[in-house]
Amino acid sequence: MNAARRESAPEGLPLWDGPRVSVVIPTRNRAALLRRAVASVLEQTYSDLEVIVVDDASDDDTAAVVASFNDARVSYYR
Q1: Which of 6, 10, 64, 69 is the most buried (most CB within 10 A)?
Q2: What is the pTM of this model?
């Protein structure tokens, strides 16, 4: 597979300029494990990715753990 971005999209479809890989991490009260999981994704050699953390009403420091990465590729939804 060619790793270069497409210069044009198939007819009728918009050209996508977002990341090629999305990693979705659902979590609830697992802040300690979440730090390791997100770090593992960000340490991969392939960098055209995003990490989406979906928090199911955690009452631990999950939000602070996600914020500590300070990386535009990481997003947090609660």
Answers
A1: 69
A2: 0.80
